[in-house]
Amino acid sequence: MRDYDSAAPGASPVKVLIAGGFGVGKTTLVSAISEIDPLRTEERLTAAGVGVDDLDGIENKAATTVAMDFGRLTLHHAGIVLYLFGTPGQERFWFLWDDLLHGALGAIVLVDTRRLDRSFPAIDFFENRGLPFVVAANCFHGEQPYTVEEINAALHLRDPNTPVLLLDARSRDDVRGALLSLLEVLIARARPTSPV
Amino acid sequence: MSDPQPGRRRRTRLYALTDGRTAASRHGLTMDTMITAAADADARGSLPTEWQEILAMCPSPDGRAVAEIAARMQMLLTPMTVLLGELLDRGLIRHRPPLDASETSQVHLLMKIRDSLARL
């Protein structure tokens, strides 16, 4: 940050979060659109947040290692590299992880309509922190027994205009559609303060 | 939960890679900061193997995010950030911070991203 002359050339990174309960298909969604095979990165977190205590080798029982699968999508025309980070399964820990949320463009909350309650923590978290998001209901085996309206009503979304989409997390087109929907939300939010 | 590195390949002690430095956030490096090898990093042969590996995986101009380097090097994020701070101090790498809120709230940029996505 301090010196501009060491700024890297090339595209600028932007982060998008892929949240949702365990087993809902976050990594599948990432791999559907990523230009690389999804990678896994890990961080050691404590109740106090990200500490450097792990550097001294002393075991801290309050610490846990969280893992995120992520992928990359370079948008050459926009000069942007999208990094799609699947949030870790251990919600009570990643909710404390400010670095994960900081600078994120927005999020896709992936839901399994058979286990809707598993998506509530992520939705509550993003609503409370003001991070724009869209809801994507994964259609397992290509089927979705509920309508968008039914899912919307069951989720009690604070903003009734939050997009709710049906998608197949394995489909590149569907995932791209969810990202496009998120961008439309962001554009709509940005317009009042910075008109074209 | 227990050992974060079961069955992992060889480990070099962190302090050996970082000269004992632990000031992870001094450079403001985050998981989504882009890292590129500096163009004039000729004398790589004398550098530690891990450093050479890192430089080789983030060629200019595209580079790689900190998280990607950490994943490929099989290191946790924070230790990798410390190590990259050391490389930055030695002028071996350059970094590009992620776009901040003032940039990502610009309609023009958002529309560009949308249009690029639509063209995929």
TrEMBL record, chain A:
It comes from the Bacteria. Pfam families: ATP_bind_1. SUPFAM superfamilies: P-loop containing nucleoside triphosphate hydrolases. CDD domains: Ras_like_GTPase. Keywords: GTP-binding, Hydrolase, Nucleotide-binding. The keyword Nucleotide-binding applies. InterPro entries: Gliding_Motility_GTPase, Gpn, P-loop_NTPase. Transmembrane segments: none annotated. Belongs to the GPN-loop GTPase family. PANTHER family: ATP/GTP-BINDING PROTEIN-RELATED, GLIDING MOTILITY PROTEIN MGLA. This is ATP/GTP-binding protein. It comes from Streptomyces glomeratus.
Automatic annotation (TrEMBL), chain B:
InterPro entries: DUF742. Pfam families: DUF742. This is DUF742 domain-containing protein.
